[in-house]
Design goal:
Pfam families: DUF2924. This is DUF2924 domain-containing protein. InterPro entries: DUF2924. It comes from Stieleria bergensis. The protein is α+β, with helices and mostly antiparallel strands. The chain folds into two domains: 67 residues, no CATH class; 49 residues, no CATH class. Helix content is 40%, strand content 13%. It has a four-stranded antiparallel beta sheet with strand order 1-2-3-4, covered by helices on one side. A hairpin with a 2-residue loop joins strand 2 and strand 3. The longest helix has 17 residues. The protein is elongated and about 90 Å long. The chain starts with a helix and ends in a 9-residue tail after the last helix.
Length: 162
Amino acid sequence: MSNPLGQELAALRRMSVSTLQDKYFEVFGETTTGRNKAWLQKRIAWRMQANAFGGLSDRAIQRASELANESDLRVTAPREPSRLPPPPAVNRELPPKDERLPPVGDCLVRDYKGRECIVTILPDGFDFEGEHYKTLSAVAKAITGQHWNGFRFFKIHKQESA
């Protein structure tokens, strides 16, 4: 004797998440955004069994209703959050420019393993091959794949003061 419900429940274990979502729609009549396979399997199995054998008993429904009546339910909507003054403005000035760097718009050129690497100085960092970098060290790492001091990599030394 075969049990069709048992076979359907066993088939849930072999279904993919997207197939379970389709099955969820079939059983509940609404879509789900849930992608947890175990949760989908349990919810679908419960609904299939409830459809086959009946849902909650009248006694269970009555008890749930009693519990809901006894609980403290909110009868008013939550208040709007108080309007606080805006936070103070943050000083977003650029850090002082390092005197070792050439002026904005100039380029640094370095030949690395036969490859000419050109870096443009920007007001807020550096441009290398269309990518924006905050530090010369980040540019050097992008070029070599290893951490380098950017000033050493590009052979930029402190100017001797006269």
